[in-house]
Amino acid sequence: MLTHDAALEWITRWDRQQEGYLPDREERFTALIDAVEAMGRPDPLVIDLGCGPGSLSARLLERLPKATVISVDADPLLLGLGRAAYPHVRFVSLDLRTPGWTESLSLERPADVAVSTTALHWISGPDLQKMYAELAAALRPGGLLLNGDHMETDDATPAVAHLERAVHSRETERRFAGDRPEDWRQWWDAVAADPAFAELHAARTTAGADHHGSESPLLSAHVDALRDAGFTEIGTLWQRGDNRLLCAVRG
User: Fold this and answer.
1) Which CATH class is domain 4-250?
2) Could you tell me if 60 and 69 are in contact, meaning their C-beta atoms sit under 8 angstroms apart?
3) CA–CA dist 149, 146 (Å, integer)
4) Per-residue pLDDT averaged across 244-250, rounded?
5) Among residues 204, 239, 241, which one has the least CA distance to residue 93?
6) Could you tell me the sign of the dihedral formed by the alpha carbons of 67, 71, 77, 78, in that order?
7) DSSP codes, 142-187
8) Phi, psi (5° rounding) for residue 153?
9) Dist CA 199 CA 148 (whole Å)
10) pLDDT band at 87 (very low <50, low <70, confident <90, very high)
11) What CA dihedral angle connects 115, 4, 83 and 146, to 10 degrees?
């Protein structure tokens, strides 16, 4: 059995290995939650897309305890970890690439905001377009998408894109000089070796939940798909190198 305390320890390790790729991860979380809070509603309805073990969802509820957060992911192991650590969060097992996924959320009203961090780049361009179109229908007019991720601009401004990556790389080197945390693969290997995860690991293998590469790394791919889906204002709220928080307003 995966206990509550053990789950929290594993999520602490998850957060640490994620920071190895995103040294400004907590700052980006803070900026995202600031934007949700600035919408002016103490009880927003929030959909967390590709929530993983619930790191963002838990932080949102710490700041906005009256919020309703619906946390969506397709990875059985990460969902099991989140459910054990955060019993107050509603986790839903869904593949965002499957049409009709929003109907399975059983929303009582249109959502105020959808959030995501380091997740949507796994979705290919055509699936991304369909996912954003379906998301737009689930948001209220004026509702937001807040997506924090690495988003490249090589297709439009290659020289700037090179500098953005350099800024990110140098910050990572400064933050972790001589003390790099375990990486993504090492974390997963350690989980696979823990007997407490045997059932969840088997479910993950059956579901084919492992990711291979970044399918939609370009900022333009997200902006174009959001515009086609009916989002009228799209811009960057926060940025450090190529790590940015993209905001889109549903028309």
Assistant:
1) alpha beta
2) yes
3) 10
4) 98
5) 204
6) negative
7) EEEEEEEEE-B-TTT-HHHHHHHHHHHHHHHHHHHTT-PPP-HHHH
8) -120, 25
9) 31
10) very high
11) 0
